[in-house]
Amino acid sequence: MRTPLIRSGAALAAATALALPAGPALAGPPPAARDALAAPTPSPGAATVTKAGTSFLTATAITAGQPVQVGASTGDHLYWSFPGHAGQIHEIAATVGFPKGRTGASTWTVEVFDGLRRRQACTAGAQTPTATAAATSVTLGCTLRQVRSWAEPWSADPLPGTYYVRLSVVDLPEPDLGLPVDVDLLVSDVGDGDAPADDGELRAPLVPNTKAGTVLTGEPAAAPAEEEGESLLTGWLPEGSSRWIWTTVGGVLAAVAGVVGFALTRRPRRP
Question: Is 45 left (phi over 0), alpha (psi -120 to 50) or beta?
Answer without folding.
Answer: left
